[in-house]
Structure formats: structure tokens, C-alpha cells
């Protein structure tokens, strides 16, 4: 497929407003090796320079992860692979992964997280332990993201509180103050703007100044989103989906993140110091579907050169 150049829109894109367009600027998106294989040419979907996270699911060979990273890097994207602590056997394995990503794909940024595995495969249990090795600093990584949980995480706090999550955030905040790398919180997805805004305000009140890259589920079938939301432990905002499911007129319509993002964008416009810095998409309904929605709503103010205005 021929390379599709991206150009600026001369008018506001359909379905978007200026606030939403500004809020979507420099959004990021997540892929997995097996989903990336289905995309013939990312350059027809995502503007050059987009940050693309590569999710490392248990059982995915590191060779597949590195190959995906190399492909995306070659196409001009900022590649941010996941480093899930609980599937990394030991410090030697971590050092090997870092060396492979750097040597074969030129990677200099990473998302560090515990990972969705109940029992660690080896020495590491948390992203904090990965940071404590000092290997990312020695390798010269320029950007390190860590996980944020606007609605808590039952794996971390089984009692439903936010105690352990909040303590971990304080640790990560202190680490960021001594690190040369730029750091940010990449969050789990949520569907309700109210709890997201409250969580962000609570972070600031607690002295957490790490910028937030807010996780948002991309367009998808309602049943798909409910399944992922339950599996990922999404809490209060799950009610937004459940309420929608009870509306017969909306039950068969695909969910789109327009409402939650429009509300967050308006809050950001009214409060410029609001600590959400960027939007991060989980393309649960497919990469192409998510990319098309972002284009139509002003993401990066770009559209493919051969697309209709």
C-alpha cells in the first residue's frame, strides 16, 4: 500500500469542536503483535510521530514484541513497549529485553507495570522493583510511564480501598523527582468523566504532579466493552455502560467515547492546569475503527490526504 500523507484540515472536522480537537492532540494508542499483524500499513491510519504502546500479554514471545516495535519505529512512530514485571524472570532477562528493544528498534521509552498475572514468574512483582534496578536509566531511556488507576485496582487493593495504589503513586512521584527520564501516569480506561476529574484533582491535592495520560476505550460494541470492563476491574464508571445497555434504542449501537472526551475537554479548557496531558486509546473495537474515529474528531488535526473532506 502506498504511503498516505497526512495534511491539516482547513475546517473543523465533522463531529468535533475546538476543545475536543485540542484535547486529542498527540493522542497515543495501544496495539498487540497479533493485532498489529492485521494492519497492512499503519501510516494510512495514524499520523507520523504518534506514540504507540505495545502490550505484552503473557505468552507473547519477546521476539514478536521486538519485531512489532521495529516495524512501528521504521514507520516513524514513537514506540513504547510494556514491561510487565510479573512475567520478567530476573534482572538478566530485563537487561536482555532492554538491549533487544534498543538494538533492533531504537526504543528509548517504556511503560512499566505489574502486569495482569496473579503469580510472578520470577523476581519481580511490581513496576517499582523494575525501576529500582536502575537499568532503564543506564540504558538512557528518555521517557518512562507507570500505571494509574482512576477507579482503584482490586488486584492491588483487594478491600476496594485506594491505600496501596496511593502509596505506590507517592513512591513513583519521588522516583520521578530523581530520574532524568520524563515520567507520566498511563491509566486504565474509564467511561465517566466525573470520577476521572475527581481522581485527577485528588492526585494534585496529594502532591502527585506526574502528568496523566488518560486511558479511554475506543469505539466498540457495547457487549465487548462490558466484557473488558469487568475483566479489567473498571469500577464506578461501569454503570455508564450498564445504563446504556438498558436503553433498547442504544443497545445495538456501537459505543463511542465522544461524551466522556467532550466533557474532559471542556474541563481542560476551563482549567488549563488540569493534569491530564494526553489521551491514550485502548482500541477494543479494532485499531482501524479507533483511528477512523480519532481522525473524524480532530485527533492531531489530520486526515489522510486521499480522504474526503
Automatic annotation (TrEMBL):
The keyword Oxidoreductase applies. The keyword Oxidoreductase applies. Keywords: Oxidoreductase. InterPro entries: FAD-linked_oxidoreductase-like. It comes from the Bacteria. This is Methylenetetrahydrofolate reductase.
Amino acid at each position: 500500500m502506498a504511503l498516505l500523507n497526512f495534511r491539516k484540515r482547513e475546517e473543523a472536522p465533522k463531529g468535533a469542536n475546538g476543545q475536543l480537537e485540542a484535547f486529542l492532540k498527540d493522542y497515543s494508542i495501544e496495539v498487540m503483535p497479533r493485532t498489529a499483524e492485521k494492519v497492512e500499513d499503519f501510516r494510512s491510519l495514524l499520523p507520523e510521530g504518534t506514540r504507540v504502546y505495545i502490550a505484552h500479554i503473557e505468552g507473547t514471545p519477546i521476539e514478536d514484541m521486538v519485531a512489532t516495535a521495529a516495524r512501528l519505529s521504521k514507520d516513524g512512530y514513537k514506540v513504547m513497549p510494556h514491561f510487565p514485571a510479573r512475567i520478567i524472570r530476573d534482572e538478566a532477562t530485563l537487561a536482555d529485553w532492554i538491549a533487544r528493544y534498543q538494538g533492533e528498534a531504537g526504543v528509548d521509552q517504556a511503560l512499566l507495570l505489574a502486569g495482569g498475572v496473579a503469580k510472578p514468574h520470577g523476581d519481580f512483582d511490581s513496576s517499582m522493583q523494575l525501576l529500582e534496578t536502575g537499568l532503564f536509566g543506564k540504558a538512557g531511556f528518555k521517557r518512562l510511564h507507570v500505571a494509574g488507576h482512576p477507579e482503584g485496582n482490586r488486584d492491588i487493593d483487594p478491600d476496594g480501598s485506594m491505600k496501596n495504589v496511593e502509596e505506590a503513586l507517592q513512591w513513583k512521584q519521588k522516583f520521578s523527582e530523581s530520574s532524568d527520564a520524563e515520567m507520566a501516569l498511563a491509566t486504565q480506561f474509564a467511561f465517566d468523566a466525573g470520577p476521572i476529574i475527581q481522581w485527577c484533582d485528588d492526585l494534585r491535592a496529594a502532591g502527585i504532579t506526574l502528568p496523566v495520560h488518560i486511558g479511554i476505550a475506543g469505539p466498540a460494541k457495547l457487549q465487548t466493552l462490558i466484557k473488558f470492563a469487568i475483566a479489567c476491574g473498571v469500577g464506578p464508571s461501569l454503570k455508564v455502560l450498564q445504563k446504556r445497555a438498558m436503553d433498547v434504542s442504544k443497545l445495538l449501537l456501537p459505543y463511542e467515547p465522544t461524551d466522556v472526551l467532550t466533557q474532559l475537554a471542556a474541563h481542560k479548557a476551563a482549567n488549563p492546569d488540569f493534569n491530564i496531558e494526553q489521551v491514550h486509546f485502548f482500541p477494543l473495537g479494532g485499531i482501524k475503527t479507533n483511528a477512523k474515529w480519532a481522525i473524524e474528531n480532530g485527533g492531531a488535526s489530520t486526515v489522510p490526504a486521499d480522504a474526503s473532506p
